[in-house]
Amino acid sequence: MKRNYKIYKNEGKLAKIRTMELNGMFTVEMAYIVPFILMIFFLSIMGIFYYHDKALTAAAAHETATIAGTKVREKDEVTETVVSTIFEERIRGKCIVFGNPSVNAKVNKDQITITAGATKGRMKLLVAESSSITKPEEKIRSYRKLGLKRY
């Protein structure tokens, strides 16, 4: 950046005005730096969206496993399709990047396992949550039969 002074004749008087001349170096530097800064900004936004969807999917899977465990305890019929439907109700329309993740549910005698996964481009998301089927009523009844007051 050069600073020059030019002298102009104005109504018979001399005026000294400072002018600046730019070489164009600043424009070239910004042409390299601004795309790099924008790329970092957009990649950080995509990372935030990824972790949002991952946390949301994990929470929905955990909630679904807990609800299914409660339904089994209440003697309702719980199958993989019922568990998948519960998960899809919890997650529908909430993910930003991945849309609706696919779900795989396994219902055993003692445990319910939910595995949810989704892909978009090169990004992959896989979440597995499980919940054991507890039967506290049976334990309390067995304590009462034995005459124990401590639960």
UniProtKB/TrEMBL annotation:
Alphabetized UniProt keyword annotations: Membrane, Transmembrane, Transmembrane helix
Record-annotated membrane-spanning stretches: 30-51
Tagged with keyword Transmembrane: yes
Keyword Transmembrane helix: yes
Domain of life per record: Bacteria
Name of the protein in question: Pilus assembly protein
Source species of the chain: Dorea ammoniilytica
